[in-house]
Amino acid sequence: MKLLFICLLCISGFSTAIAAPEIELTESEQAYIIENPVINVGVMPDFTPFSYYIENTLVGFEHDLLALVSERTGLKFELKIDKWTTIYNSFKNKEIDMISSISYKKFREPFTVFTSAYYEIPIMIFVRDDFGDYLGIKSLYGKKVGVLKDVFYVKEIEKIKGIEIVYYDNYEELTKDLVFGKVDALIQNLTNINYLIKKNVYKNLKLASELVLPNTKNEDLRFGVQPDKVLL
């Protein structure tokens, strides 16, 4: 039995500009869609350029991708829009069928069936201009470092001794607190923080280094599906 959603992601080519081959669904897949016409999926409101607002309209790469899947299958997606921690815990508690922007980690396997990655982003360390020279992870010893709650690499960061971790619910607050000195550094993906820096015209932040951990190199974005909905 093939995984329907992975199959759709692969053949779509992630582009509406080029016509993809016809999708031939198995009888069981067709039956699943008839029995489950609406799939609720957790998405974030502030994850640029994948899921974010422009003039009160939610847009982004993930929404284009979901629209393409909907067009080709007849599935309808009902969005649960909230901060990462909320949709992540809703997914863990089986309150929603699917979640976007989730990265693979082995500890998530018991409650997640992962699609293949549709995007990979470098994870970066940002600091203020007055931080001084960044000479590796040891430069963060004794410092306050801001991270998003429940981000997939947080368990690895928590193992680094000498760093005071400050947890945040959203990216805006995380970035703003670095600007105004409430934390000394932040760790987050490149695209999202770059967007916030440009949007808010922050002038005192700089990119210190890429973060490479023993078991993490990039943020690999995937859709996650409930294990009891593996056909999805």
What's the tally of helices?
A: 7
Structural class designation: alpha/beta
Order of helices and strands: HHEEEEHEHEEEEHEHEHEE
Q: Note poorly predicted spans.
A: 1-17
User: What is the rounded Rg?
Assistant: 19 Å
N- and C-termini, Cα separation: 11 Å
How many domains is the backbone divided into? 2
Describe the protein.
The chain has helices at 4-12, 27-35, 61-73, 84-92, 154-158, 171-179, 190-200; strands spanning 38-43, 46-47, 51-54, 57-59, 76-81, 98-102, 113-114, 119-128, 144-148, 164-168, 185-189, 205-210, 218-225. It has seven helices and 13 strands. With 232 residues, the chain is α/β, with parallel strands linked by helices. The strands form two sheets. Strands 1, 5, 6, 7, 8, 9, 10, 11, 12 and 13 form a ten-stranded mixed sheet that branches. The chain is elongated and about 60 Å long. The model is unreliable at 1-17 (pLDDT under 50). The protein folds into two domains: 4-119 and 219-229, D-Maltodextrin-Binding Protein, domain 2 (3-Layer(aba) Sandwich); 121-218, D-Maltodextrin-Binding Protein, domain 2. It starts with a helix and ends in a 7-residue tail after the last strand.
